[in-house]
Amino acid sequence: MTLTNAMTLKNYLHLSEESEFLVASKAERTAFLRTLVENRTLVTVYDPPHDAMMMSMLVAAEPADNRIFLDAPVDSPNVERFLSLTAWHLVAFPDNIRLQMVAAAPRRVVYQSKPTFMLEFPARMWRVQRREFHRLDVPLSAPVRLHMPWSGARLPLQVRNMSLAGLCIAGEFPVQANIREGQHLNGCDLQFPVGAQTVSITADLEIRSCHPAAQGALAARTAGCRFLSPFPPSSQKLFQRYLNALECDYLARRRQAR
After folding, report:
1. How many H-runs (helices) and E-runs (strands) does the chain carry?
2. Quick check: 168 and 160 in contact, CB under 8 A?
3. What is the pTM of this model?
């Protein structure tokens, strides 16, 4: 990996020291990759300088032959762009751990009678624990809402920021709801945009932090919450697509600010 690629990846991960998160052992990198294969974990392919991305899955990892294989999506408009690159930035989230790696020399091949992409076995991999995930601010121009069940109705709340592990909500809660740390909010309806559509998925939350309430019949609060359980695969794919879009917007704003 060239120095330019290393610096680009460092900025992309938002890390001050890459070595703190580096997976140096090839055996450990192999174990992570095989977990992605076994669990059919979604992998996002990024071109950070141009904010392009493509969804795929890891089909096989063959460290002895120094290669990996990714499923070739049939509906991605970015395939030709990515095939022209010398290396791909790959991101996956097994068990709420962020794995990011760089794999070189992508090309089309047929693997086990299926169209795939073959790349060199990743020489570098970074593993970031959930506690290092940065929350992504939700733009006011495209709001995200959480509807909390309350007294037979749905209480609309604003989502201020999100990550794979949780979110921050704000709104006016009924005092009788007694919103507090450790409280579970089950069966919430999380609504966010994906393309031109609004997607709705069910989320169970636990409140991890909560600001003091104001006086009155309604209590204005903000609450930091974590997701209690994984989303179903179809919902997880849509949620990850939304977070990917937020991250691309964030990276674009950072570059414009420099």
Report:
1. 4, 15
2. yes
3. 0.56
